[in-house]
Amino acid sequence: MTSLLQQAFDPEAFRRQGHVLIDRLADYLQDQLSGTAPQVIPWQEPHVQRDFWQEWLEEPGKQPDFFQTVLDRSIHLHHPRYMGHQVNPPAPIAALAGLVSDLLNNGMAVYEMGMTSTAMEALVVRTVTAAYGWGDEAGGHLTSGGTLANLTALLAARRAKSPGDIWVDGSAEQLALMVSEEAHYCIDRSVRIMGWGSEGIIKVPADAQYRMRTDMLETLLEEETRKGKRIIAVVASACSTSTGSYDDLEVIAAFCRAHDLWMHVDGAHGAAAVFSPQYKHLVKGIEKADSVAMDFHKMLLVPGLATGLFFRERSHSFHTFSPEAVYLFQKAGEEDWYNTAKRTFECTKLMMSLKVFTLLQTYGVALWDEYVTHCYDLGQVFARIIHQHPNWELAAEPQSNIVCFRYLGKGEEELNALNARLRKKLVEEGKFYIVQTVLRGQTWLRVTLVNPGTKEEDLETLLGYLAA
Questions:
Q1: Are 307 and 145 in contact (CB under 8 A)?
Q2: What is the distance between the alpha carbons of residues 370 and 342, in angstroms, rounded to a whole number?
Q3: Are 178 and 217 in contact (CB under 8 A)?
Q4: What is the pTM of this model?
Q5: Contact 146, 183 (CB under 8 A)
Q6: Can you tell me the distance from the alpha carbon of 217 to that of 317, in angstroms, rounded to the nearest whole number?
Q7: pLDDT at 66
Q8: Where are the alpha helices (DSSP H) in 45-193?
Q9: Which residues of the chain carry a pLDDT beneath 50?
Q10: How far apart (Å, rounded) are the C-alpha atoms in residues 228 and 249?
Q11: What are the two backbone dihedrals, phi and then psi, of residue 448, each rounded to the nearest 5 degrees?
């Protein structure tokens, strides 16, 4: 090897760097979890960040404390006042598993390239499908994010419910699905990717709590069928991204059974409630779904990306795609669970199952119960606090750890502009991190309470900062 390659692969250098880095990360974790770190987000304008890092590229290896600088200039999910996007602070041991997987770099297209992680994935899938109440006929796989999981599920629905072999022959019919108007935008995107166009997605109005109006399903089905559309599926949200509201899975399941439709649950965030006995009722009916997508990196303490796509009948997982790569698969038609590329978009899939499996074998599902229950409890606590302050209001009573609220002000300032301004000021100061959303034309502040260290006083302090 050349001298540079020798340096890059030197085990002793790695040992020294690793020890220093782990100590630094442990100190960082302690500071963040304690809440003593001064900022949650060290906000800078995009061009400032870009120009700063440009200097580091101009003299490779000359700048000191690279990793510390990355920590200092990044958003801090482990801080109790991180309340922003739906990305959990990963458990440290799962992050260590990520280090192992990154160094091994075992792809998972075929079993021989990912033996350990493939076996682990099968056991992770079994753990989750059992929690859903499914039997031995269930199955699934992990994939890179909720968008890919939802798209893959809808491809399976298309294969199962559309006439003929659509994978080979295409479709001459206008296929469509039904979904709440509050569903994540990736459902709309998936429909368009499949070539169904804007006519392929039928938006079902939401009620005052931003849940699908299931009382309108029959009417919409009749109306759209008369227009010549072939509706093959209903997508339920568990829960919606904007407000954390759960669609009624039992009613949707009954409707799908009555009309021979595929039922898919986008449970990227909220399907994790199945692991909390206290909140499991929110996903009652999930056992009747045909497929469920669930992100481990949103509510189950795993680093991103790690998403599961689960099927009540695992055969659907194998029928979605028809691989032609004979150099990889000697018997492409067999349901050989250990060759995962038959069922995913990825070929060189990351060892994401190692991160999930590490948590399960270390703590069991009891960790997920504690975490989900704590975060959802915080949603109820924050709602109670909002009700106690007359200058604040909720968009809806929260069902999960997502809470939408806004400041009503003390004067005549337009509320949308007021709340957007308050959020911008908060982020630029960096003491908290929250986001905002638009619901029926109104701007609302939005928190996702994902940090296990967040306390009631943090929520009280947040309102104090915003109203100051």
A1: yes
A2: 35
A3: yes
A4: 0.94
A5: no
A6: 27
A7: 93
A8: 46-58, 66-72, 92-104, 115-131, 146-161, 166-169, 185-193
A9: 323-330, 332-333
A10: 27
A11: -120, 110
Q: What pLDDT is attached to residue 263?
A: 98
Cβ neighbours of residue 84 under 8 Å, at least 6 residues apart?
A: 75, 433, 434, 435, 447, 448
The total of other beta-carbon atoms located within 10 Å of residue 48's CB is 9
pLDDT tens digits, 272-308: 999 999 999 999 999 999 999 999 999 999 999 999 9
Q: What is the pLDDT of residue 347?
A: 82
The confidence score (pLDDT) of residue 176 equals 96
What pLDDT was estimated at residue 336?
Answer: 78
Q: What is the DSSP string of 414-431?
A: -HHHHHHHHHHHHHHHTS
Q: What does the alpha-carbon distance between residue 420 and residue 82 come to, in Å, rounded to a whole number?
A: 18
Beta-carbon count within 10 A of 311 CB: 29
Is the Cβ–Cβ distance between 346 and 144 less than 8 Å? yes
Hey, what are 156's tokens? 């399976």
Q: Tell me how far apart the alpha carbons of residues 204 and 227 are, in angstroms, rounded to a whole number.
A: 16
Return the residue matching tokens 């700048």.
Answer: 63
The first and second tokens of residue 389, run together, are 């302050």
Q: How many helices (H) and strands (E) does the chain have?
A: 17, 11
pLDDT of residue 412: 63
Q: What is the pLDDT of residue 321?
A: 72
| Domains of the chain, earliest start first | 11-41+76-90+366-468 (3.90.1150.10), 106-364 (3.40.640.10)
Structure tokens at 281: 């009722």
Structure tokens that stand for 201 in this block: 């997605």
> Which region, left, alpha or beta, applies to residue 196 given φ > 0 means left and ψ of -120 to 50 means alpha?
alpha
Q: Cβ contacts of residue 114 below 8 Å, gap of 6+?
A: 106, 107, 108, 340, 349, 351
CA 4 distance to own-chain centroid? 39
Residue 245 tokens read as 């509201």
Q: Residue 82: beta bridge partners?
A: 433
CA-to-CA distance for 184 and 191, rounded, in angstroms? 12
Which among 326, 299, 296, 317 is positioned nearest to 308, based on CA atoms? 296
DSSP for 216-269, please give it. Answer: GHHHHHHHHHHTTEEEEEEEEESS-TTT-PPP-HHHHHHHHHHHT-EEEEE-TT
